[in-house]
Structures are given as structure tokens and as C-alpha cells.
Amino acid sequence: MSSCDLCVVRNRAICAALDSKELEALNAIGRTRNITSGESLIWEGEDSVLVANVIEGVLKLSTNTEDGREQIVGVVYPSDFIGRPFGGKSGHGVTALTDAKVCVFSRRDFDAFSREHPKLEHKLLERTLGELDRTRRWMLLLGRKSASEKMASFLIEMSERLTGSGCKVDADKPNQRHLVLPFSRQQIADVLGLTIETVSRQFTRLKNEGVIDLPSRRDVTILDYQALVAEAG
Amino acid sequence: MSSCDLCVVRNRAICAALDSKELEALNAIGRTRNITSGESLIWEGEDSVLVANVIEGVLKLSTNTEDGREQIVGVVYPSDFIGRPFGGKSGHGVTALTDAKVCVFSRRDFDAFSREHPKLEHKLLERTLGELDRTRRWMLLLGRKSASEKMASFLIEMSERLTGSGCKVDADKPNQRHLVLPFSRQQIADVLGLTIETVSRQFTRLKNEGVIDLPSRRDVTILDYQALVAEAG
DNA sequence: TGGTACCCATGATCTATGTCCAGTTGTGAC
DNA sequence: GTCACAACTGGACATAGATCATGGGTACCA
Which residue range or ranges hold the Cyclic nucleotide-binding domain (chains A, B) (predicted)? Predict the structure, then answer.
């Protein structure tokens, strides 16, 4: 029995394209790896040497200007794919925001394997097209939205992406939900293209307006989801 | 002889993955279409019904907020691929910036064809991965760069993308190059997440500093490429 | 050759957000 | 417990870029 049979993302990651025999072959060239919060798996600008599937945890993709400003260009969750297949350099670093578990492959091995398995490549293509859509939507936010619109959009996105892992919707209160952010205030600022102070002020404003509650630094209770949707623009 | 044999992007578009027999089959489900400047091929939010290859011209991909602010999320050139294969809605409109010629396919037909031709899907995957890299790089610009850095980055990107079609490098003057922009001032603003006034002021500043010259509204002569690189941050 | 409509440049203001800094809260070590 | 450090909040002020307003080019059409 291959260890993949026990994998929690077996049916959601790109591996879902493979039958058990193929999966065994893929498993033979990969290995699982644990990463602690804050640790990097890939660095910006280095040659692409490895790719991976996320099994557990949340990781950020980020780029920096030479003088140290940072922009988070993507966030990946369990079952998401990481890395740049088919050559080239990695345009962004990949760093764990929480403790994480990933299934890593040498990029060369993975490239060769995927070229022989069109169903896998097809899954990867669908996933990449989806990621491109999501990224382009985020460009509208970065280029054209105000700080308050950015914050509202961020909280909505978080409540959608964290469903199941860090976000619970109570059947009694459909307009209300609770989430545990995998981000510090600075990281939220780096996602939204704002400063930490602006993010902090937006949080307190939303709290004062009764739209959210902040039980602790990493916890957010959305009290009025519709108000957020209206504010997201 | 299929009409593809005469196609100028035959060896650069995703079609390059196909042999002449396969190409004939693809050609049978596609047709060329001329688009005049300003005309749209795909509208934001509509179901994805067609995909296409660009043969001639330049087109923009853009999204809008409900109250009319626009962000250009991508620009496509000859040999680039347009549209969203494998279902879903189009997240952005596609509009010609110049007169253009494209090779269009029904999305359903194309989906079916590509699933039967892994080499085509592979090309499409490589192209999509490249586009995702480029898009993520642009996020750093939108989220973290100043107006002057944005303008410098824009002019550099233009001089790179237009090489061959609208940009000439003179061997005598390697630090100098000429380009014909496919954008109005407003469209440049929509690419950079700025207003038209800021774009205009940046142009005159760069001109006054001797970094560029502006022979006409759509023409830019870069006089000091290195200065632009330094300013792009 | 004059009209008209768009596109662009530029000056004068305004304001959202950045910057700087001081104070507070939470957390983990010993 | 308390010490030390990092994360966060919030006030005061500065400013890049937006907004508003005007006038000049340039192309197109009659």
C-alpha cells in the first residue's frame, strides 16, 4: 500500500488524476516534508529545483523590491500546488505561515513524470488557469480599491478560503462566521498593498461599526457578512 | 494545404505543438476573425464560449468595479492565447487596442480537441505558467511601487514586449530605443493603477529630465534606458 | 477653412494613506 | 511573578497622488 492512500488531499490535489498504480510511481519520486511556521521552501530568484503539493498548513508566495518592500502574490492551502514546473527561475519565495506538511518532488523528476501522464498535466493546467483567474481578480483590488474596500474584500476571501479548516458558519446565524487568520497584521498589509497601521485602523473601524468582533489578535468574528460584501465594492 | 501553413504565428503559438495533420484538424474547428480597434471579443462575467490565438494586433484584458473604475489585468500580443478553456466564466473582458486578427474556436470544440492532444495541452500549460509569473510580478508593481517606479517599469516592459513589432533598437545607440505605444494615456493609467493626470505628469517629468523624448502622443523615444532601469526599483 | 470632439497637459487644491513615534497589550522564558 | 520582546494600536503630521478645472493641440469631417 502506498502512503498516498492515507493522504488527506488524495482526492483534491492534482494526484486525483492518477489511478493507484500511477500514484505509486509518483509516490516513488516524492517525499513528505514538515515545515515550521516562518520557514521557507523556495527563495525568490533561485532556479526552480523543486515542486510540491500542500498537505497541511498555509504558505505565502511573496516578492520583494530591492529596498525591502514586500508584496504577497499568493496564498496556498492544503491540496494546492507549489513551484514552477518546466524550467525557469522562481519569481517569488514560498514561506510557511503556519506549521505545514508538503509532498515535495525534484522539479526534473516531476517534469518528466508529468509529461508522461497527460491526465496529471491536465489537472495542473486547470489548477493553473484557476490560479491565474484569482490572481487577476486580485490585481483589481491592488490597483483600484481603497483601504476599506481592500479590507472587506480580504475578510470575504478569507472566510471563503478557510471554510472547513479555519472558518465555521453557524446555521443559526448565516450572516455571521468565525475565522482564525493565518496572518499577522504586517502580512495582511503585504497582501493588500497597505501599511500595518492602515490595516490596524481598518480593523478597529470595522469593530466600532459592529461589522466584526476581534476576540484575539488572530481571531475575527464576522457579525455582518452582508455589510462586508457591500463595502467590498 | 491548410491555411495555417501561411500563418505568421504558426511556430510561436500553441499550434507549434502540432504536426501538419493535427493542425489541419484544429484548423477545421477554427476560423480567423478581424477585429477593429476598440471592439470587444469577450465580455467580463459572461460564460466562456470562445477561445482564440492572436495573429496580429494588441488586445487588453480588463476588469471593472461596479462603479466604473477599470484595471487592465493583461495585454496580449501576436501568438498569445486568449480565453478560459475548461468551463467557468470569463473574469475579464478582452478588447482590441489596435486593429487585430485572431483565430477563434468554440470553447467546447477546443476543450475536446485539446484533451485529445496532450502536446497542445502541454504548450498551453507552459504558456499559462508564464502568464501567471508575469501577472504576479505586476502585483508587486501595483501594490508596492510609486508612480515614478510604475512609469519606468511600464516603459521597460513595453520596450521588451514590443521588440520586433513596435520597438527598434539602434545598434549605434544601445541605450536608446523607439516605441509606438498601443495605449492611450487613460489606458496606461488603467494598467498602472494611476490616474491619467499622474501618467501625464510622469511623462513630462521624464521628458524634462532627458530620459525620454515624446515626438508624438503615441511615440516614445527612450534616450537613457539605464536611467529607466535604475528608476524602476 | 472652419467646426467640433476628443485627447492631453498643467495648475490649484484636497484627502487618503503613509510616516513617525509613543504607548499598550500579549507572550514566552526563567 | 516579572522581565523582555514582539505585535499591535492610536495620535500627530506629512505628502504622493487624486480630484477639479481650464486651455491647447490635433485629427476628422463638412
Answer: 14-83
List of chain A residues whose C-beta atoms are within 8 Å of the C-beta of residue B73: 136, 139-140
One domain, residues A115 and A151: no
DSSP, res A106 = E
Q: Is the domain of A87 the same as that of A181? A: no
H or E element: which one contains B226?
Answer: helix B225-232
CA B101, B157, A86, B87 torsion: positive or negative?
negative
- Of the three residues A141, A162, A183, the one that is the final residue of a domain is A141
Q: Is the CB of residue A7 less than 8 Å from the CB of residue A55?
A: yes
- Say if residue B110 is in the same domain as residue B183: no
Are B76 and B95 found together in one domain?
Answer: yes
**How many domains is chain B partitioned into structurally?**
2
Residue B189: partners with Cβ closer than 8 Å, 6 or more residues away: B195, B196, B198, B199
Residue after which a domain boundary falls, among B141, B162, B190? B141
Give the pLDDT of chain A (233 residues) as one tens digit per residue.
568 888 999 999 999 999 999 999 999 999 999 999 999 999 999 999 999 999 999 999 999 999 999 999 999 999 999 999 998 899 999 999 999 999 999 999 999 999 999 999 999 999 999 999 999 999 999 999 999 999 999 999 999 998 765 556 666 667 789 999 999 999 999 999 999 999 999 999 999 999 999 999 999 999 999 999 999 98
Bases on strand C under 7 Å from any protein CB: 7-12, 16-21, 26-27
CATH number at residue B200: 1.10.10.10
Give strand letter and number of the nucleotide nearest B195 (CA to C1'): D18
The pTM assigned to this predicted structure is 0.94
